[in-house]
Amino acid sequence: MRMRHLLLTLALVLGPAVAAFAADVTGTWTAEFDTQIGIQKYVFTFKADGEKLTGQAAAERMGEKATVTLTNGTVKGDQIAFTEPLEFQGQQVSITYTGTIAGDEIKFTRKVGDFATEELVAKRKKD
């Protein structure tokens, strides 16, 4: 009975802390990284609601700027994932991101369709 009481107490105490951590990704994040098509600059705007992640990606690549709405977003503990839908040279390409949140940085791996896998770091924009 004591163990059950202890587990219930831990769940009540730690549950909100874990939920608050998951929501910590909300805000604006910037990244600049080199790819096969040159330097890309991104501004991600995230909003977390529990484990659901929504947001936008504003990108500058090859002299062009575009903003897209992110899809399939999740935040689970310190793990984040989403998809950036992209139209590139008349083709629809899904860019899938997975990452680990550590304070004011997110270390991402992004898979650009079947073309490339890239590593990047996004940093929280300080207001």
What does this structure look like?
The structure is a single chain. A hairpin with a 2-residue loop joins β7 and β8. 17% of the residues lie in helices and 65% in strands. 19% of the residues are buried. With 127 residues, it is of the alpha+beta class.
Supply the CATH superfamily name.
Quinohemoprotein amine dehydrogenase alpha subunit, domain 2
What is the helix tally?
Answer: 1
CATH architecture: Beta Barrel
CATH topology descriptor:
Lipocalin
Describe the global form: globular
Helices and strands, in order, run as HEEEEEEEEE
- Distance between the ends: 49 Å
Number of strands: 9
CATH class: Mainly Beta
The computed structural class is alpha+beta
Tell me the number of structural domains: 1
Short structural description:
This protein is α+β, with helices and mostly antiparallel strands and 127 residues long. It is built from 1 helix and 9 strands, in the order αβββββββββ. The chain has one helix at residues 2-22, and strands at 27-35, 38-49, 52-61, 64-69, 71-76, 79-88, 91-102, 105-112, 116-124.
Strand and helix layout:
Layout: H1 2-22, E1 27-35, E2 38-49, E3 52-61, E4 64-69, E5 71-76, E6 79-88, E7 91-102, E8 105-112, E9 116-124
From the structure above, extract its key features:
single chain; 127 residues; alpha+beta; Lipocalin; eight-stranded antiparallel barrel; 9 strands; 65% strand; disordered N terminus
